[in-house]
Design goal:
five-stranded parallel β-sheet; single chain; alpha/beta
Amino acid sequence: MTSIKVLIVDDDRDIADTLAYIVKRSGYKVQVAYDGETAVEYAKKHDFDFAFIDIMLPGIDGAESLSRIRKHRPDIKTYMMTGYSAFKFKQKATESGAIEILGKPVMPEDILGKLCQANVGTVLIADDDPIFAELVSSTLRTAGWNVRTAENGLQAVDIISRGGINALILDYSMPILNGVEVCNELERRGVELPIIIATSDDNSRVQFENKDVHGFLNKPVDPRAVLDFVQQQNLPK
């Protein structure tokens, strides 16, 4: 049996128990919770590697449950589950630390597929252009990487500070904190990771001369160039 521990949270007991049964038969250690409060209590006592959490839960919802869980388990890899429009919940789930939203009905093979990526590196795409972020994310996920996104510099710093990010693709021109300010803040917090700057302004490069960045890509960026960069970083795979 693998040492990977999985938390499944869903108020539909039939769904939760069925998913847990199949995941457990595949060799994983599984704990089931039927509401958010119980899930948080389990997370205080057990070091889970993965969580699959329904967004619509009685009491505190899935996003709030995850926010509380991450206070105790900041490195937990979490996927939210919902039968509603994923777009409606995307920002809240992302801000809570979810990697991805899975549409219901979630099949056991969906969960097993995510668990098979347990040692895959996670790349953060920090860019306020949703089209660029989606193109790059799709390219990286197709190649087998986990991907998270941030829409502004402050959100990027917050996600990285929580742990679990192996590389950063950073837009120079970002709301709230720009690329230089993000690098400054990460340096202040003692965070080190491979960073590549995406910019349409060649003159901006001089501002990163004393920063620990690994390279630059000129916008519009070919997503394959981002993939090449990630594959050169010797990240978990």
